[in-house]
Model the fold of this input.
Amino acid sequence: MRLSRSLSITSLSGLPLWEEESLPVQDLLLFEVSWEVTNKVGGIYTVIQTKAKITVDEWGENYIMMGPYYEHNFKTQVEKCEPPNQAIKAAMDSLINNGCQVHFGRWLIEGSPYVILFDIGAAAWNLDRWKGDLWNACSIGLPYHDREANDSLIFGSLVAWFFKELTDQIQDKPNIVAHFHEWQAGTGLVLSRSRKIPLATIFTTHATLLGRYLCAGNADFYNNLDKFNIDQEAGERQIYHRYCLERAAVHCAHVFTTVSQITAVEANHMLHRQPDVVTPNGLNVRKFSAMHEFQNLHSMNKAKIQEFVRGHFYGHLDFNLEKTLFFFIAGRYEFSNKGADLFLESLSRLNYLLRVHKNDVTVVVFFIMPAKTNNFNVESLKGQAVRKQLWDTAQSVKEKFGKRLYESLLRGEIPDMSKILDRDDFTIMKRAIYATQRHSLPPVTTHNMLDDSTDPILSNIRRIGLFNGRNDRVKIVFHPEFLSSTSPLLPMDYEEFVRGCHLGVFPSYYEPWGYTPGECTVMGIPSVTTNLSGFGCFMEEHVSDPSEYGIYIVDRRFRSADESCNQLTQFMFSFCQQSRRQRIIQRNRTERLSDLLDWRYLGRFYMHGRHLALSRSFPGTFKMDHLNIAPTQGFRYPRPASVPPSPSASLHSTPHHSDEEDDDTYDEEEEAERDRQNIKAPFTLGAEPEGKSKQPLENGN
Done:
């Protein structure tokens, strides 16, 4: 059977369709194996969960996920049922009859995929025997004290055992594709290949194990990729056995994939294999889409953030909230990896520029990173209480005022404003004003930090001196807890908060993909990323002028730290100079990029990986036109038609400008239609499009 590089999926509106024959999924079984199936640990959970629907749409009941069993997760996320495939049921029964516990059901997420979950604890009595099997297979030994590595061995051994029983049941048909994510699942791949189980195998690394450890230790990672002694570095960090498992899985797989080009470079040096396919991470864009109302949602949620700011900065609210911009950074508390160090230094420089230019814009910056705390900050709670008290006072006085005004007008009299409010009303208002007096600066953090003196963010805030003073144009709010709609301080969930902000800033040093800027993009919020993040590399490939679409890419790979910091400062300062209308236009453009991040488009790269794995593992049944991976077919958004040729022409000559200024060259519907037309013409990424004398795909615009 000939097999082209095919897609069995309808193209998105405007996106190029790969018109090739689809896989015979009725004659195949697809298993996706990960430690994070029904078990949220990190970002891989988001990848697997959001990708499930498009995979179920293509494969139907022939798609099954595999992961570890945790009783609480199973009871709250999985609907137990019987396997529809008798061969799968027989393989499960074989494991159960040998003393293992295996559970089957539907994962209650979009798409409702089938899941097989293996109970690690119930099979732990086999650990010593399976350690011997692993040693005999690939000479990798696991220390007894590494619980995570031992659990991954138990999980992998159960997966390999299951595949052996399953292939014995079904013989040659249907053929099986097994996709393994990360080193925790990789043991199953290594054991399956060593036992010559007939599978088409794929291994995806979302970030190399050693890369994470080196960057967490503040190593100059990307400038020394070719200089590291890999074995020595892994041994010094006591993860040599884990590194060996990861590398064995990479080299045993028929197809090796990573999530971004920057991770592909890293994997080539760390794991000594060039990835066959890059499989970017996507999102279910419908989950975030607001049906042309995202601008209204921005206004609504911005008002909620403004209410928080009114309370948090009470007594120091001497800045105009209508000219206040909200920036934020969010994610795991990895101070250097997430770029918080660069961000804080840039904020210090931004504060200086805004003050020197006497700009009337104020920037409130939120750090949403979970850290160790013991409770809310008393001063933060008091601020919200004072705000609510002022609101209640204003409402009661307004009610009296309105009633007396109404009665005066009924009598046909022009009211005497001096008599509308009596002395008691003025007394109440004066008391309310006195209650807002504050003799201390607004707090930098909303919670009581357990490690206040050594906390990296707070230590750097002390160094740069941004303490929310009256003269500071940049204010900082460190919220060391993930957002929740039940919080007494900032009662918003993460999606609402992102929609209410103006700019997300994620200047990461180590970010194999980066979901946070992607989430901003599909919600129409501009963001800052870097060319060391997978998302940033992806946008550089697919968008001719990312900054005009609200994607600012800081160069952290080829510039010094100081130059990167200045570039980030300039991005933020330029953003502060935009008028309100310019920000609205930019949000419209940002939201249009959401199709790029939809799994309905990005899922094709996973499909290509499966096709390649089948052609390599079952060459007699599946053949590809080219055994080597062809360059990825893609497209590129051109520069927006309404943007002047010179970037400087789109900026103000002075920071003082009018929000009412207009841009007569901009037509939202016309520009959106041109974008839709432009991206219909695919080209090969990395190659020069025809007509290079003009901007890529800009002919006729």
User: Anything to note?
Assistant: The longest strand covers residues 175-181. The two ends are 44 Å apart (CA to CA).
